[in-house]
Amino acid sequence: MSDRGKVFVALFSGINVGGNRIVKMAELRSFFGELGFADVATYVQSGNAVFRSRKGDAASLTKQLEAAFEKKWGFHSRIMVRDLDWFERLVKENPYPDVVGEPTKLHAYVLERAPTADEIARLAEKCTGPENFEIKGDVLYLHAPDGLGKSVFANLIPRTLKVPGTARNWRTVLTLLEMAGQAGAG
């Protein structure tokens, strides 16, 4: 880690969805700055932030951010914090390279933990439509050929898998990786 700190990405869930729990990205950037983080950048309204921290790891930063966020905005948002190396691995290990040209049909679910074999088996039983999924560690890759909005299976993932997580389409994944890489090079 350089003396400037390490680059992380924070993925928020449950904010700015359907006009509820509104958090402006300018306010979110200020929030990160107030907590002492540097080189803060956000991407789209769903709550994605790239930032640099001089101390802490993904787990401790997650706890710090969730507590401070709830105190400031008055509601809980599950936050998944991952570092640049993790994002690079997520992209490199994509089991659906032939779909990257259709980024709205490929999604990565960032999971709080790696699911157990039993949890994965339960989910596989529900995957009866045109979708395909693969889990690698704490990432679920979903290829939804008809898009996420029309996927019945995608709606079943959280309550069947029962591992908290948040999904991002492939365009967002690649953009966040690029942003984190630029922050890391800067």
TrEMBL record:
<dbReference type="Pfam" id="PF08002">
    <property type="entry name" value="DUF1697"/>
</dbReference>
<dbReference type="InterPro" id="IPR012545">
    <property type="entry name" value="DUF1697"/>
</dbReference>
<protein>
    <recommendedName>
        <fullName>DUF1697 domain-containing protein</fullName>
    </recommendedName>
</protein>
